[in-house]
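A common beginner's mistake is to predict each chain separately and then try to dock the pieces by hand. The better habit, illustrated here, is to supply every component at once so that their relative placement is modeled jointly.
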Amino acid sequence: MTTTPDTITAYRESLVLHLRLQEVPPDRIGEIVAEVESHVADTGEDPTEAFGTPRDYAAGLTDEHRKPPWWWTTTTLVLAAAAGWLSGRGAFPLLRAEPYLGRSGWLWLATGLVLGVPPAWMVGRRARQVLDPRTGQPLVATPRWAPLVFFAIPFAIVLVGWVAIELAN
Amino acid sequence: MTEDDVPTEWLRAVLPLAVLAVVAEEETYGYAVAQRLQAGGLGAVKGGTLYPVLNRLEAEGLLTSSWREGVGGPGRKFFAVTAAGRDSLDRRSAAWHTFTERAGGLLPDPRSTR
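With all components supplied together, the output reads:
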């Protein structure tokens, strides 16, 4: 079997994805991928031949990297949902210049943003870029606009809701 | 089954100790460890088997690793034994020899009984 740079790139991208799904920390992902590439550069083997499919290799490393417990993910989701709901609850009264349940929109918005800090930190930690330990450069290019989308979606929902309410009035 | 054809469970049992022994001989990298194991008669060990073993030994504090630039090629991850690794190798090797001698004592030896 011939090993082309395309084979290596495809294997790298797939392995990063499957290790991400196993919630392996980004610095470990960089190490694991660099080991594979360094090894097949020495042997001239096809990566799948030497390490198995990316899915199987990533799955085989699970005893080394335990996934975070289910309550960790649940807590993140519940906090993120509460933060999103409270921020939206605050943004509407602010845009419409009226209080919600007798409280200023600023209070709801601030509570939402404070609650959003822990889940944003947890997600950010898992979503860090994977760096190649050999070069210190990112292993897989992430578009610069990717983090923006994360914030743009809730913002767009509030905006669309507000526009809809204004038009209905 | 020929003499060289050993069950994979046996290999799995001895591989961490054998890898530790190879790295203890001299600081080395993955592919060179695989070549040394093959030259030692343990057969071809795939990368997918070898690196998890190396990483587990490192996680246990028996090895350390560092990336070095290759000559005109990509970087290589070099592994070196720690003091704890050398200590563990001595103790586990002694235990392994005791174990194989006892197991050998229970088994018939076709070479001596024809």
